Amino acid sequence: ATVVAGDVGGTNARLQLYSSAGELLLDRRYPTAEHATFAGCLSAFLAEVDAEGIAQPAAAAIAAAGPVAGNACEMTNLGWTVDGDALSSELFGGAEGAVAVLNDFEAAGYGVAALVGEANAAAREDNTLVVHAAEAVEGAPVAVLGPGTGLGYCTLAWSGERYSVLPGEGGHASFAPRGARQRALAASLEARDGYCEVESVLCGKGIVSIYEHLKEDLGESEEPLPVRTPAEVTGAALDGSCRVCLEAVDIFLEALGAEAGHAALRALCRGGVYVVGGIAPRLKGRLDEVGHLRDGYLYKENAKFSELLSTIPLYVVTDTDVGLHGSR
């Protein structure tokens, strides 16, 4: 028998087919803009499975970006509904419970769980960057957050035998700016959107929003700066071709570090804080050069909590498939 593991974000749907022995048989990525529904996307994948002459799957586990209730997810940043029961009926021969739907960061949490603790030290070393080194407490809570199309959140809690994942929507909490520069950014975004949540700053579109905010103050007056995508902002920052992009990335990293610190404090996550997703690893060059992520995390100007945070390790997970691993 074969099974499908899926990770569905606002931009791409990643689908993989595994044998019962855990062998990867097929791996595909579908831009969500090319399909009207997730059912259509999954149907395209199953058609490729058939074309490859591989046995059709008996079950699927799909991680989707949004809150899950009743085995269904109304995706937050995409007009898709991922309904496990309907998919079981339509595409899996009516087999009850054939398709399980979980929150994307619940899946990421299960993937991160395989990196936590002394027993997983080798895997952690191979798949993370250590931003702040400290000794994690075995079995203590662990915080996971990650900017991508949106900002995902979850907490790992030790059950006595393994970690359980508590999904959350912390990205929609209000943004807590630090200093005049971030307060001006927050005011600008609130004026534009009517609100400023953490996800307004800490996601791909958030990087562009920071860049757009800075253009007027930091841009070259004689040559207006172009409109850029998130990838173009980070690319121009890393190659040094645009100082406004560099400033935007540095503000992003400072804010991400601060939010990682908030996550650590809310549940006393002495087991560590793990930043996942594709954006942070892409900024490795900047992480190596400056300490904005670490500085935002520790925030030494306020000794009330910086001493506690200094005892909690902070990692960036470099394996961008961690959510897929968790959905398996």
Automatic annotation (TrEMBL):
Gene Ontology BP terms: glycolytic process
GO molecular function, one term: D-glucose binding
Taxonomic superkingdom: Eukaryota
InterPro entries associated with the record: ATPase_NBD, Glucokinase
Pfam families on file: Glucokinase
CDD domains cross-referenced by the UniProt entry: ASKHA_NBD_GLK
Keyword line: Kinase, Transferase
Protein name per UniProt: Glucokinase
Annotated source species: Prasinoderma coloniale
Lineage: Eukaryota, Viridiplantae, Prasinodermophyta, Prasinodermophyceae, Prasinodermales
